[in-house]
Fold this sequence. Notes:
By secondary structure, the protein is α/β, with parallel strands linked by helices. The chain is 44% helix and 19% strand. It has a six-stranded mixed beta sheet, with helices on both faces. Helix 5 crosses helix 6 (163-177) and helix 17 (518-533) packs across helix 18 (556-586). The termini are far apart. The relative contact order is 0.09. Residues 537-541 and 544-554 have low confidence and may be disordered.
Amino acid sequence: MASIDLSDISRFIGTRCIFSSVSLSVASTDRIGIVGRNGEGKTTLLRVIAGELSPDSGTVHISSGASVGYLSQELPTFDSTVIEAAMAGKPEVAETADRMRTIEKQMSSPRGNVSELLREYSRLQNRFDALGGYNLENEAAVVLAGLGFGKESWNVSTETLSGGQKVRLNLAKLLVSKPNVLLLDEPTNHLDIAGTEWLESYLNGYPGAISLVSHDRRFLDNVVTKIWEIDNGRVLYYRGDYSSYIRQKEEQMRQLEQEYNEQQELIKKTRAFIDRWKANAKKAGQARSRQKMLDKLEVIEKPKKHRSLDLRFTPSEPAGREILRIEGLSKSFSEPLFQDFTHSIKGGERVALVGPNGCGKTTFLKCLMGTESYDGSIKWGTGVREGYVAQTFEFSCLDRTILDEIKGLGIPEKEARDVLGMFLFSGDDTKKCIGDLSEGEKSRLGLVKLFLSDANVLLLDEPTNHLDLPSRQALERALRDFSGSVIFASHDRYFIDLLATKVFLFENGTIRVFEGNYSHLKTCLESEVYVESKLEKSAILPPRSKPEPVEEPVPKAISLDIELKALEDKISELESKERELSSILADPETYKRSENVPAKEWGMVRSKLEELYMQWEKLMESRGHYGE
């Protein structure tokens, strides 16, 4: 059954067609990813479905009783505490509670009709229960925790939140409201990897329909089962996840190019025959017949390929063998971000900085660039020229045009235009003022300046922010082909997997180093959890009532192996319990079935696991002294 039907809808901005003749539906359990280049109309389509914009023609029909919730990219406003804002996703619960409190006051008055008030109170109490009012705070707490709001922040005023935190809080409020249809515009913006993975799990268990816009390929692959692509005013439907859509799209393009080439060859041969024999009395009839065939032929339009970034980073000179030496690096604000970190980075390495929001990745990059104070030593190698791209692009003069910004770097106008053309700025685009650019255009302009920097070491803070998928792919190709070194912070798992040769994991005030990419990091962490989960079983081994005589002491290595095995078994048990609890917490049905959500139990299990991991590390260190 369809929750939403789009019937022949069209939308224009001035004379420009955003999309036209769109007839699609959103079924009650659909998982739809809306994709397309920046500016194609993805957000516009979501807003039309949500009812924020009206189609210029056609109709949007929402099934009777179906509720629709829309997450926009706009910065929301709140005037409450964090947990109150999340609970406000169900305003009817607060309204019912207020009415119950009013009746309680009336019942305490001698003038009230107690029996009638009791009936009304009972009715409201049943409604409050049916709405999940008794469990609302627990439900909001689980969603907030999943989206990166620690318990210490729940009673903080929303006025103190950053823009990114407010966007995440708006997502939490929407998830708590549980509409029949979720419309999400870039829901992973401002989420770290842990938050994104939690959201994936939550959405995969969501009982309603979901339509979302995202540039995160791994997220799309893990959540959606249908793709709507907006391309040149059309909305095209593909079955499957994002990777399946790419394969289908490439196969369609290959077939269309083959059909076009075959038809062009047919037309060429047919015209050659006509030109050769049209004046020949014996074959003029055949020539006329073939001309009629050509006249009736439905000509296949030449397949159009979108322009893409022609991005290359080619340093004129390589750096030395060791490009960076860090010794005893420490940085604190109210709490330590990282302490006593020592490491060297070699030429050609691509290092990903990974960790939760606020763990110090941006600060680390600023320390490397010398724009943030620190304790310790940072020494760049011989011949190193750094190029830095910040998370938000800052330009000194917003009234300056794109062309003037590049010419201001000492680049002649013709060369500046050529370079801007490589980054999809051409014609009148080069006359745009920087202050009028979209965030995606600012990102591309920042990449132009990086391209012209002749750097052989690139420091990039969330470089894929605001880039559409084709631009991300162009950046990936350029960085893979780059002969220098790259140090980058990112929450894009696909991007990290494709590029990283080493990962710096920021956690609990430390930086841990792992070889490989994000998937390898995750495997290592899961292995640590597995090994450490087996360590505590020694604590539950039954004591012997009477010690057995032995002729000689058990060797220390064997004793440690026994302890390790027991501790690993215990960790394995707790990991299974954690996965079970995580699955329960990610299931929206949990909050309908019971008032006792196991959030506290999950936290206790996680805390115990962390304790066991530390025990395992100490045992492994001791065991290492005794060899095999």
